Amino acid sequence: MPGRNNSTLLSVSKIVPAPLLYADTHSSADMLYFGRVEVHDPFIALGVRGRKITVQSALEFGRVKKTGDFDVVLSRETWLARAQELYGPAAGVAEIIATLAGEYRLRHFRVADDFPAALYVKLTQLGLKLVFAGGLLFPEREIKTAREAGCIREGNRLCTVGYLAAEKILRAARIKGRTLSYQGKPLTSERLRFALETAISEQGGNPQDTIVSGGDQACDPHERGSGPLRPHELIIIDIFPRVVKTGYFGDMTRTYLKGRPSDAQRRLVATVREAQQRATKAIHAGVDGRLVHRTVTDYFSAAGYETRRGKNGSVGFIHGTGHGLGLAVHDPGRMSAVVPYPLKLGSVMTVEPGLYYPGLGGCRWEDVVQVTATGTKPLSRHPYNWEIK
């Protein structure tokens, strides 16, 4: 963001090598964070003694110079010609980077852990020393400013737009035996997903891979859902749209049922909601994410909901309690049983416990919070009215 990245680079450059990136902004949240401008093809960017420098083709040069957060925008055509003078007519990206390194008197860079392998090999052959970040290329990316929190809040507003569209359709749907009918046709996961994604797109969001999954399909948490939605069955809707203007994501999940829930379904839904509330209360700066996760697992166990793993899959609580959210839908930050992870002041986390039992169904509630010194600040808001008549 304006003003912050440059000073951060300046202080970091004293103790670690300069950052070097080669990626597009759709596949690399680091690149979007670094330059604050969308570019759909891979490009070169690097930090040089507190300044952010990029190399752009004629296609992108003017736009990046006007709208990006780079201090220096260089012509790819110019620097390719210089690289060809030094390395011959077959010079490409690696040789451009080596030429830049010579110009700026740099031989040592740090790169992201997913830096392109072939480019890594070529650059080392050209005499550059590259070290992997061994974690975040920009550790400060985990901490969200007020502006970033506002961008995430907007992503979650778009989630609400989607839920309102879905709820309207579910209310209008009619129960006909084992099917839900909407406007004279069976209501399917595909139809409901298209409707809510259209509503989000109309308001500046880019929803992808939205989950609308009912019945036993919802017992696989990442199953997108297909085919007819059934009355009296739990339906999980998980929406995580990207805000087109800023690149930040929202991420919320709600559970619904059209018809008459059983007592077992009511108890399942209430238990998951209580677990989410307990997890949220356990969050504050410095707490280990494993402890928050254990709050949920202990509560589920005490309530009689077992997690079992078998040869045909797992049932119960089979994923983490939450993850970071920002320029990536899975940003830095974890609340799970896997590794210690102290939550950082200002980080943004999802809180999303769930239970999944084929025959009964699946339920997940997900909201987003920013971590404070003593608790959390909510960044998402939508009712939990899951029973739809």
- Approximate shape: elongated
Mean pLDDT: 95
Number of E strands? 24
| Widest beta sheet: strand line-up | 4-3-2-1-5-6
Largest sheet: 6 strands, mixed
In total, the number of domains comes to 2
Task: Outline the structure in words.
This protein is of the alpha+beta class and 389 residues long. It folds into 2 domains: 4-141, Creatine Amidinohydrolase, Chain A, domain 1, CATH 3.40.350; 143-388, Creatinase/methionine aminopeptidase superfamily (Creatine Amidinohydrolase). It has 10 helices and 24 strands. The protein has helices at residues 4-12, 29-35, 58-67, 76-87, 93-103, 117-125, 146-172, 189-202, 263-282, 289-302; strands at residues 18-23, 43-48, 51-56, 72-75, 108-111, 129-132, 174-176, 179-182, 185-186, 205-206, 211-214, 234-239, 242-243, 252-258, 308-310, 313-315, 322-324, 331-335, 348-351, 354-357, 361-364, 367-371, 376-378, 387-388. Strands 4-3-2-1-5-6 form a 6-stranded mixed sheet, sandwiched between helices. Strands 11-12-14-24 form a 4-stranded mixed sheet, covered by helices on one side. The protein has a 3-stranded antiparallel sheet with strand order 7-8-9, with helices on one face. Helix 4 (76-87) crosses helix 5. The chain is elongated.
Please supply descriptive tags for the structure shown above.
single chain, 389 residues, alpha+beta, Creatine Amidinohydrolase, Chain A, domain 1, Creatine Amidinohydrolase, 2 domains, six-stranded mixed beta sheet, four-stranded mixed beta sheet, elongated
